[in-house]
Amino acid sequence: MSDIIQLLPDHVANQIAAGEVVQRPASVVKELLENAIDAGATNIKLLLIDAGKTLVQVIDNGKGMSPRDAKVSFERHATSKIQKAEDLFNLSTKGFRGEALASIAAIAHVELKTKQHNDELGTSIKIEGSNIISQNFISTSEGTSIAVKNLFYNIPARRNFLKSNTVETRHIIDEFQRVCLAHPTISFLMYHNNNEIYHLKSSNLRKRIVNVFGNKMNEKLVPINEQTDIVAIEGFVAKPEFSRRKRGEQFFFVNDRFIKSPYLNHAVVNAFEGLLEQGSHPSYFLYLTVPANTLDINIHPTKTEIKFDNEKALYAMLRATVKHSLGQYNIAPILDFNRDANLDTSYQFHTNPKATKTPEISVDPDFNPFKEQKEISFPYNREKHTQSWESLYTSNTVNEEENQTELFENQQNNQTQKTIQIQRKYILSSIKSGIVLINQTSAHQRILYEEFLENITIKDANSQQLLFPVKISFSSAEIEMIYTIKTELENVGFSFEEFTKNDITIKGIPISITESKITTILEELLNDITLEVPDASFSHFDVMAKSFAKTLSIKKGTQLSEKEQEELVNNLFSCKEPLVSPFGKPTFKTLTLNEIDNLFNQ
Ligand code: ADP
Ligand code: MG
């Protein structure tokens, strides 16, 4: 038999390596920013077009490359950062694998311009799919500019796999923030589609955090500072009252490198013991410095996970330090954080002032008072779907001649209760064929979800104008994200007066939400949009409707009046798909009389 094994040609090997290094535009951003930092830049500009899909360009004022290095830098395993295996255990640079530029050049159109400080002329190189197209001497400023265009142009499957611009932008902003927070003394600029998103001047750490996350961050920060033989810990944690329901602003840096560490996270969360509301997460920005030879960053290709020699000692130290700082800043434990559910405002369907003006009740043989309630709650017609559900109920015929008020009284005085709430979680109701048990949260999510979707798709924004416009501050990244979905938000009923770099002024909101919920709704939405948009072609509407439904739904533990329970039941069965919540959870279960009989062997 003849030999069949061959070495892969370089460009193929590079493409394969690229699969590991470059998942999305944000990976390119990370690699290029890190290279600029390794080159000693003090000024770094990031330019993006179409969430980096069309262009990611990084311009730095670092040390530049010689003409020979410029060319070699695109070869695989070409690095100036390590020379021998031992160097791996004493790294002070971000990069060391020599893979990034080779990988990027294999799957994009790349233009490099670079000049070293004392050279008269610089070098320009164009490279496409690993092929050098041109190399020239040019006059250019000191430092390096690398433009990466049309990412994945030669791998359509990967390109199609990219998510919407909103999602890809979010990933880029995440990477950008990590790098900026790791290097507060370097100044950074970021432009997206020619709009300035960040302009971060060289500063101290606290200022950098505030510049990245917005002024509201300043009052939240508690400084952390501890030096021991094995580790120096610096940075800030946010006061517990500012903890978030989502993990978001949680940053660990080890030797100026952003890392993820569930283990160290646990240490911090533990230090907050007794101070946090259940299900909320503390924000923190913690900078650990350890001797380079006591950690191994080589275990993960994208290098966000690392291994420490003294993990246990670090844990203990971190926990004690954070606890101590929280104590020093006099943050008393909040003993009874769980609210009494009895004190919660009971659930209100009547959030639609506009619709209440037009309770169009035509005389209807199937009329019952609950349907009347439903018309008030929902601004669109669900009549068609109601019929089938109502037929499930035991006979409830009402004389159509009687007027509404009488109907209500009649109902309240003479009829037995139709629903029972169980453990403030479920609603039990009797139907013709047996009983139905409804999960109040899932059911309400379904109702709200369809309501929002309907509002969105009929493009008839059911908006309520606010008496006084509300100004909400967000970080510039969050504002950029909200701006990308502005049109969709307007479709659901938001109207905006102004977007500035630090805040958004809102003058109208959807009728189904209340003013006090605006911030939560938008924050949750930002989070969900990042996590849940399944692909680039998918509209944000579904994600938005789900997010709103989740945020606004009644939660378990909420007591519902009898009327509210009945409205919930009626509205659920007026839905197009009453069986499941928008998240695929069952909304109700039925037990037929037969099944009940069987339980008793009858
Ligand atoms: P690594 O960073 O792991 O060494 P890269 O592929 O990212 O590998 O870069 C290869 C080499 O190109 C680097 O080692 C460095 O010498 C050079 N290089 C890359 N980017 C820059 C830059 N912005 N300024 C100066 N040199 C650079
Ligand atoms: Mg690199």
Task: Give structural notes.
35% of the residues lie in helices and 22% in strands. It is α+β, with helices and mostly antiparallel strands and 602 residues long. It folds into three domains: 10-200, Heat Shock Protein 90; 206-328, 2-Layer Sandwich (Ribosomal Protein S5, domain 2), CATH 3.30.230; 416-530 and 537-602, MutL, C-terminal domain, dimerisation subdomain (formyl-coa transferase, domain 3), CATH 3.30.1540.20. The N and C termini lie far apart (76 Å). The chain is globular and about 90 Å long. 38% of the residues are buried. The chain has 20 helices and 22 strands. It has an eight-stranded mixed sheet with strand order 5-4-3-6-2-1-7-8. The chain has a five-stranded mixed sheet with strand order 9-10-13-11-12, sandwiched between helices. The structure holds adenosine-5'-diphosphate and magnesium ion. The site of adenosine-5'-diphosphate (ADP) has 23 residues, from α2 and α4.
Provide a short characterization of the protein structure:
By secondary structure, this protein is α+β, with helices and mostly antiparallel strands. The protein contains 20 helices and 22 strands.
Question: Which key phrases capture this entry?
Answer:
globular, alpha+beta, eight-stranded mixed β-sheet, 20 helices, binds adenosine-5'-diphosphate, Heat Shock Protein 90, formyl-coa transferase, domain 3, Ribosomal Protein S5, domain 2, 602 residues, binds magnesium ion
Q: At CATH's second level, what is the architecture of the largest domain?
A: 2-Layer Sandwich
Strand proportion: 15-25%
| CATH topology (fold) name of the largest domain | Heat Shock Protein 90
**Alpha-carbon Rg, integer:** 30 Å
DSSP, total strands: 22
The assigned structural class equals alpha+beta
Low-confidence stretches: 332-414, 533-537
Report the mean per-residue pLDDT as an integer.
80
Compute the separation of the termini in Å: 76 Å
Number of domains: 3
